[in-house]
Design a protein that fits this description.
The protein is an alpha/beta fold. It has 2 domains: about 140 residues, NAD(P)-binding Rossmann-like Domain (Rossmann fold), CATH 3.40.50; about 190 residues, 2-Layer Sandwich (Dihydrodipicolinate Reductase, domain 2). About 30% of the residues lie in helices and about 20% in strands. It is built from 10 helices and 12 strands. The protein has a 6-stranded parallel sheet with strand order 3-2-1-4-5-6, with helices on both faces. Helix 2 links the parallel strand 2 and strand 3. The termini are close together. The structure holds NADP nicotinamide-adenine-dinucleotide phosphate.
Length: about 350
């Protein structure tokens, strides 16, 4: 039975972690919820109706790392950079949801359905990184195709939900949408807010800041992280990331060029055989339907599978998943589950 600290417990990802722990995803003796001093003393268990053995929220500065088996960090990259190594040297396995350590060669970047071999032994750093939310659903769909016919190159366009911007992103989309509806569409068009631009009834084709090449931080992550996870350092992969006025679940239009020709039937079979991946043969997945219930939220959904008629190495997919579960909390706790199964978590 584990003592787990959820750091950033009051946020969008942290709350989902607590819900999944409450559902018994791993055996817990005790959960410590930590957040900023603003939330100290808040009875999150009562607010969320949880039965977990958990005291009210602790300010992170007051968290005692002694005796912690696991710390799941979901409080942003700055907090992770400041705290992760200290928690790991006190003996906790740190599973980090931020971007702080993802490309660190000493830190495995893990999607348990894709590269569980990275968890064969406890990493010497004591830290395991959780990939970017859009990366996770992408590699879950790419991995079976690589096994089937070899990946040559990938082009992905994302349609990312407001929950990717945390609780503030969700609140802003709800408030601005209500205001625009009340004013029949007259509302602010100036830059600002959680997404850099107004999101309600809009599309924002820039997630994170662009670098000198014109690609944004999010697009860079989407190009780099799959190479590390799939063990394909030379895979050609390029992305356009777009924020859309959807509350939950990221969608992706993915064009894959394979090394061998395939049929749509073979692609469907390969994807359907992958754990936790649901192929929609009739109809297609959409954010609203994917968010509708725990079974659906736990899966990666793939539809609109098309092999180009004049190029049997070219495949299009439409991939939808819940960024807060598949893309963050569930993946992080499946990392813990894998470590428990492998027997190296003290
Ligand atoms: N949202 C997603 O889809 C998603 C997916 C993958 C990864 N992630 C990553 O997960 C992390 C959290 O994202 P989120 O969406 O859950 O954000 P969020 O809703 O804004 O929550 C942020 C959390 O961090 C805490 N926090 C802020 N400043 C702190 C401080 N100085 N000390 C301790 N705790 C502090 C907040 O506590 P208070 O409530 O007390 O302010 C809150 O619990 C980020 O690194 C993000 O990149 C998010």
């Amino acid at each position: 039975m584990l003592h787990i600290a959820v750091i950033g417990a009051t946020g969008a990802v942290g709350r989902e972690c607590l819900g999944l722990l409450d559902g018994g995803i791993v055996p817990v003796a005790r959960v410590t919820a930590a957040a900023s001093p603003r939330s100290a003393g808040h009875d999150l268990g009562a607010e969320l109706g949880l039965k977990l053995p958990m005291a009210p929220v602790t300010a992170l500065d007051d968290l005692d790392p002694e005796g912690l088996d696991v710390a799941v960090l979901s409080a942003g990259a700055d907090i992770s950079r400041a705290r992760a190594r200290r928690l790991a040297s006190a003996g906790a396995l740190v599973v980090d949801n931020s971007s702080a350590f993802r490309m660190d060669p000493a830190v495995p970047l893990v999607v348990p359905q894709v590269n569980p071999h990275e968890l064969a032994v406890r990493p010497a750093s004591g830290i395991v990184a959780n990939p970017n939310c859009s990366t996770i659903q992408l590699v879950r769909a790419l991995h079976p195709l690589h096994t089937l016919a070899g990946l040559e190159s990938v082009v992905v366009c994302t349609y990312q939900a407001a929950s990717g911007g945390g609780l503030r992103g969700l609140d802003e989309l709800a408030g601005d949408s209500a205001a625009l509806l009340a004013s029949a569409g007259a509302g602010p068009t100036r830059p600002g807010g959680r997404f850099g631009q107004p999101l309600a009834f809009n599309l924002v084709p820039e997630i994170g800041l662009p670098d000198g090449t014109g690609f944004t931080h999010e697009e860079r992550k989407l190009a780099r992280e799959p190479r590390k996870i799939l063990g394909l350092p030379r895979l050609r992969l390029t992305a356009t990331a777009v924020r859309v006025p959807v509350f939950h679940c990221h969608s992706e239009a993915v064009y894959v060029r394979l090394r061998e020709p395939v049929t749509a039937g073979a692609v469907q079979e390969a994807l359907a055989a992958a754990p936790g991946l649901r192929v929609h043969r009739d109809g297609y997945p959409m954010p609203r339907t994917v968010f509708d219930g725990p079974e659906s939220r736990a899966a990666v959904h793939v539809g609109r599978i098309r092999v180009e008629p004049d190029d049997p190495r070219g495949v299009w997919l439409w991939v939808v998943a819940d960024n807060l579960w598949v893309g963050a909390a569930l993946n992080a706790l499946q990392i813990v589950q894998t470590a428990v199964r492998r027997g190296w978590l003290r």
